[in-house]
Design a protein that fits this description.
alpha/beta, 283 residues, globular, single chain
């Protein structure tokens, strides 16, 4: 007997007969290789995260992490229907307990790698972002979205407690009550509601999202990469700390930037009324 339980989610398990792309994740470079564009590339499956996709995403993030020429990373999904609907439930259907746990470990490593990236990384959510897809977006520094984007955590509907970050990140972004409602009901929210709640920074039409993401990335890439990475760490390490501890973390980053060549170049460019030329970040 069929049910209407899943209709609100607006997606289904991927077609078992569909042909898989050559690579489940794509990596492209923009603006003289200063911008890395990472694309989840299983549009036939609403970019559901298979084991192979998770492993490949980890490899790609680890690759751009050590490329000093890359100053900012955009993460998006192929097509305009879905960013990612989370784990590939058809793949999981036939998994043994050991196989599921091994996949879970691999996905944990993927999300950790995304969260620990020193470079700025933001998500351009172009459609559905559910479950692990929503959590992957939240693992980025911030999110912009298309008008047709939806965000949801349907794990409880499937007998799971969300384990990719939402119980930690959602309360911080949308408030405890709303986070619990999303996690307990599984009901998705629209892009407009996500924007109102602070989960999303900007909303664009589907055909303008990629251009908007590139504009933001170019703005970040044009700033001092050393300063951008330093302020990212100051925010990350200071969040949740007592005020004076957070200020100490902030000032450590500030004083390091104050004696860096980028500070001299930036102030010199301002006084000369020219564009600054910042060198790639030092490690």
């Amino acid at each position: 007997m069929s049910t209407d339980r899943w209709k609100k989610l607006d997606f289904a398990p991927p077609d078992a007969e569909a042909e898989e792309p050559e690579s489940p994740v794509l990596l492209d470079y923009l603006k003289d290789d200063q911008i890395a564009l990472i694309t989840l590339n299983r549009p036939h499956a609403d970019n559901a995260i298979s084991t192979e996709m998770g492993v490949r995403l980890t490899e790609i993030v680890e690759t751009v992490a050590v490329q000093t020429r890359v100053r900012v990373v955009i993460l998006t999904g192929a097509g305009d229907r879905a960013f990612s609907v989370g784990s590939d439930l058809r793949e999981r259907k036939s998994m043994t307990k050991e196989g599921w746990l091994r996949q879970r470990q691999a996905f944990d490593h993927t999300l950790y790698t995304v969260r620990q990236l020193r470079k700025p990384l933001f998500a351009a959510v172009n459609g559905i972002a559910y479950g692990g897809g929503c959590e992957l977006a939240q693992s980025c520094d911030f999110i912009i979205a298309s008008e047709n984007a939806t965000f949801g955590q349907p794990e409880a509907m499937l007998g799971l407690s969300a384990g990719g970050g939402s119980p930690v990140f959602l309360p911080r972004r949308v408030g405890t009550g709303m986070a619990l409602q999303m996690l307990m009901t599984g009901d998705p929210i629209t892009a407009a509601e996500a924007y109102r709640l602070g989960l999303v920074n900007e909303i664009h039409s589907p055909h303008e999202l990629a251009d908007a993401a590139e504009r933001i990335a170019e703005k970040i890439a044009g700033n001092s990469p050393t300063a951008v990475q330093a302020v990212k760490r100051a925010v990350q390490l200071g969040e949740g700390q007592p005020i004076e501890e957070a200020i100490a973390i902030m000032m450590d980053a500030h004083w390091r930037s104050a004696i860096h060549p980028d500070r001299i170049e930036g102030i010199g460019a301002f006084n000369d009324d020219r564009d600054p030329v910042f060198l790639d970040a030092d490690f």
